[in-house]
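INTERNAL AUDIT FORM
Audit reference: QA-55
Scope: verify that the stored structure record matches its stored sequence.
Auditor: D.O.
Record contents follow.
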Amino acid sequence: MLQLRIGNGEIHTTEVDEVVFIPRVHFAVEVDDWDAALANLDKQGVSYSRSAGGAFMGTGGDDSQQGRREDTNEHYTYIADPDGNLIELVHHPLGLRSTEGDAIPLHRDTANPKWTQIPGFVEEAYKEAEVTV
C-alpha cells in the first residue's frame, strides 16, 4: 500500500491483481513554480497535455500542453502516472482570497508532520513480525 500525504489530506492506494482504468477521475496538485515544474517534466521526459487525454474540453489559449483559465489565470496541465492514472498539475499565480477579499496563504508542509500515534502501539503490534526493507 502507498500513502501519499498532500497538505492535510491523504491518498491511500492498494495493490490489486487487475488494474481498473477509470478515465476522467483525477486529483490535482498545486505547483509553486509553474515554469520550473514544466522544465522538470521536460527534463524527466514526462509528457503532459492540457486536454487530459481528450477527457475534458480545453479552455484558455491554444497551447496543446498547458492551459490557462481566463477568470483566475490558473495554469493547468495533465500528466499520467505509470499505471495511466490522471493527475492535474495546477498553479494559481493570483493566490487565494477570502469572501472579504483578504489574501489567504497556502499551507506549506515544511516540517513534514505526521499523524500522532498511540505510544508503543506499532512496536507492540509488529514485535513478532519480520521487518523487511
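Auditor finding: record pair retrieved intact. The longest helix spans residues 34-44.
Action required: none
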